[in-house]
Write a structure and sequence with these properties.
Layout (H helix, E strand, L loop, with lengths): L10 H13 L3 H14 L22 E3 L11 E3 L10 H15 L6 H17 L18 H18 L6 H21 L1 E2 L4 E2 L15 H4 L7 H13 L23 E2 H13 L3 H12 L11 E2 L6 E2 L5 H16 L7
Antiparallel strand pairs: 1-2, 3-4, 5-6, 6-7
Helix pairs in contact: 1-2, 1-3, 1-11, 3-4, 3-5, 4-5, 4-6, 5-6, 9-10, 9-11
Length: 340
């Protein structure tokens, strides 16, 4: 197993939680998150770090603690987190999508909040062509991750939707629209592997990425398109260790020592993807199978050992539970008549 210092807040994970909060009527929690994000990111905006301290100070440099053993004697034990310095394009998409969900629910953004969101969108429009570290924070050379590009598209699309009810200069709107459209053209041309019938982890790659299960939720492709269906099927077939679990990417291909468990949020994202592409019966069966893997208190960790069913990593994991809520809501919103 691997040890990482997770005593920080990930804007991406929190934004997914905010969307779940809003769907179940928790407006105060959602507004509270955006207020905290404005405070915690103030020193680095418009850059949005992958992770933040609760008070907005810089995350300390990562270092190993020699002579310390982690959970179940795993090594090394680290403090600080080097991912704080990575460029992760996807985070902007999650944050702007959370702001859009708030606006969509009928709530106007405060002027400072909208100013911050505009800054995030401007940065995406300026930097989307650059390679990044990706959602999984691989400690390797940056790459053109397809999921990151998709989330860059989402950031600009949601910013433009918010702008329909908020002030925005015409020149800024045009710049966002041009960048959004350019991302869509490039991702469809370079991110799809025709031989596999699937979008892939990065441009020119044959590897899969379970984060691409968000495809039918975005709007960049029709949810029932052959490309979306092919991507879902490929991920389900190739990244499954058996049962309802999924790896987030092919095991052993992240350049790090140690082993990976199945990543539980990805299984709940698969439930959402199946529900949104008319495969409700499959989604229900998968969801019910996942519920059997909860602890007696109904809790989940970040990862699970496919062989033993042991919960690994952060426990309990907020991202997993937010994904669970969103999967349940997707099933609730999907009529029985959509699929077998």
């Amino acid at each position: 197993m691997r040890n990482w210092d997770y005593r920080y807040a990930w804007p991406r994970d929190a934004s997914i939680g905010v969307a779940a909060f809003l769907r179940v009527g928790k407006l105060d929690e959602a507004r509270g998150f955006l207020g905290w994000l404005l405070h915690a990111s103030r020193l680095q905006r418009p850059r949005l770090p992958a992770l933040l301290t609760l008070d907005g100070r810089h995350v300390p440099p990562e270092r190993d603690l020699r002579g310390w053993a982690g959970y179940a004697q795993s090594l090394p034990v680290r403090v600080g987190n080097g991912a704080a310095e990575q460029h992760q394009l996807d985070g902007y998409g999650w944050v702007l999508d959370a702001a859009w969900v708030l606006v969509q629910a009928g709530h106007h953004l405060y002027s400072e909040t909208w100013r911050a969101m505009r800054g995030f969108a401007d940065l995406v429009a300026r930097r989307w062509r650059e390679p990044d570290a990706g959602i999984w924070e691989i400690r390797d050379d940056a790459a053109h991750h397809v999921h990151s590009k998709l989330m860059g598209w989402l950031a600009l699309d949601r910013a433009l939707r918010i702008a329909d009810t908020h002030r925005l200069p015409a020149r800024q709107r045009a710049r966002w629209q041009a960048a959004r459209d350019a991302i869509a053209v490039e991702v469809k041309a370079r991110g799809f592997n025709a031989a596999m019938g699937s979008y892939t982890r990065s441009y020119g790659s044959a590897d899969l990425d379970a984060a691409l299960l968000i495809l039918p939720l975005l709007g960049i492709e029709d949810a029932d398109s052959p490309r979306v269906r092919g991507t879902i099927n490929a991920i389900r077939d190739e990244l499954s260790p058996g049962g309802p679990l999924l790896y987030r990417y092919p095991p052993g291909q992240d350049g790090l020592p140690g082993t990976e468990g199945a990543f539980l949020p990805c299984s709940f994202w698969l439930v959402q993807a199946l529900a949104h592409t008319g495969r409700r019966r499959e989604a229900v069966d998968l969801f019910e199978a996942l519920l059997e893997h909860a602890t007696p208190l109904g809790l989940y960790g970040e990862e699970m050992d496919p062989a033993t069913g042991a919960h690994l990593g952060n426990f309990p994991q907020a991202l997993t539970h937010a994904a669970l809520i969103q999967a349940a809501l997707a099933l609730q919103d999907t009529p029985d008549t959509l699929g077998p």
